[in-house]
Amino acid sequence: MTAITHASGKGRPPTGGAVLLTLMKLRTFIALFAVLIVFAILAPNFMSTANLILMAKHAALNAFLAIGMTFVIITGGIDLSVGSIVGLSAMVAGSLLMNGLALPGGYTVWFNVPETVVVTLAVGIAIGVINGLLITRLNVAPFIATLGTLYVARGAALLMSEGRTFPNLAGTAAHANQGFDILGGGRFLNLPLSVWALIALALAAGYLGRSTPLGRHIFAVGGNERASGLSGIRVNRVKMFVYMFSGFCAAIVGLIIASELMAAHPATGETFELNAIAAAVLGGTSMSGGRGTVGGTVIGAFVIGILSDGLVMMGVSSFWQTVIKGLVIIAAVVVDQAQRKLQQRVTLLQIARQS
């Protein structure tokens, strides 16, 4: 049967370039299904309910960091300090629960679990404020600014205990600070509370990015910072927010890890920033700014998490796991650049057909 199309081109079947572009946009879903199928075949008990829940719990930690990283990258920045913020946050929580806060005169203030959580989150936000001020007020490049705070935060974590671990965060009845283990070990409807917290944060962040003026400003700043400023958007405030939000997300991860282990170590979170960047880029966030989605980032985080856990179950060396993660980052960036070029070609082709 002969197809009838309008002169404008409507009804025309998709070209090869358009199909390829669609596949590139769906690359995160394709990667997720690919790793699930491969490890389901190669790794025993991979698809068991217990293992899927455990993988979701592990992937959630990376997803928290990646959501914050996504907003930073969308504005054209980068946050290398998130791993160190995780470690410092864990140590702050551990210190408050084990030692309290010493005051002059020999007094000690003890914090209950909710107060400890609030203080720890405030520490993460405060480091985000420092990053934001360095970038917006002192015009330090994001890479350099967050690299500096990476070392400062890690050093502060080490100084808090002289490099030692806070080994027992169970608290005591006398200090009314028991129950910290619920954050990392609690469950609701057989799912870890950390997964429920991720769902809540992802929904809130997705709504922020898609349906609020602040979200539109974040994308505008990443698309064209100068034009955004000329149009009345307060660029510095937008950048301050994304770095504060990234610090907030990192502090959540520090709390969850310390709660799960019931211990805090200053080396917690090392190299976590690499996983967060990999998840964001794999999820479709453009390193050049202006493009990305929270949903894509969460799926990217699950791809990275499932890939890591699957390789462990198959007995692959941790050294090779690091190599594979690096290759994933490179491949994601290459595909992202190819998608941008192909998008431009398809758009030009569509314009030419309509003219």
What does this structure look like?
The protein is mostly helical. The protein has 14 helices and four strands. It has helices spanning 16-25, 27-42, 49-74, 82-99, 113-136, 142-161, 181-185, 193-211, 213-223, 225-230, 235-261, 272-282, 294-313, 318-354; strands spanning 101-103, 107-109, 187-188, 191-192. Strands 1-2 form a two-stranded antiparallel sheet. The chain has a two-stranded antiparallel sheet with strand order 3-4. α4 packs across α11 (235-261), α9 crosses α11 and α12 runs parallel beside α14 (318-354). The protein is globular, with a radius of gyration of 23 Å. The protein starts with 15 loop residues before the first helix and ends with a helix. The relative contact order is 0.19.
Question: In a nutshell, what does this entry contain?
Answer:
70% of the residues lie in helices and 3% in strands. With 355 residues, the protein is an all-alpha fold. It is globular, with a radius of gyration of 23 Å.
The first-to-last residue Cα distance is 27 Å
How many helices? The count is 14
Number of strands: 4
* Morphology: globular
Low-pLDDT residue spans = 1-13
Beta-strand proportion: under 5%
Give the helix proportion (percent range).
over 70%
Order of H and E elements: HHHHEEHHHEEHHHHHHH
Secondary structure class reads: mainly alpha
Outline the secondary-structure elements:
Layout: H1 16-25, H2 27-42, H3 49-74, H4 82-99, E1 101-103, E2 107-109, H5 113-136, H6 142-161, H7 181-185, E3 187-188, E4 191-192, H8 193-211, H9 213-223, H10 225-230, H11 235-261, H12 272-282, H13 294-313, H14 318-354
Antiparallel strand pairs: 1-2, 3-4
Helix pairs in contact: 1-14, 2-13, 3-8, 3-11, 3-12, 3-13, 4-5, 4-6, 4-11, 5-6, 5-11, 8-9, 9-11, 12-13, 12-14
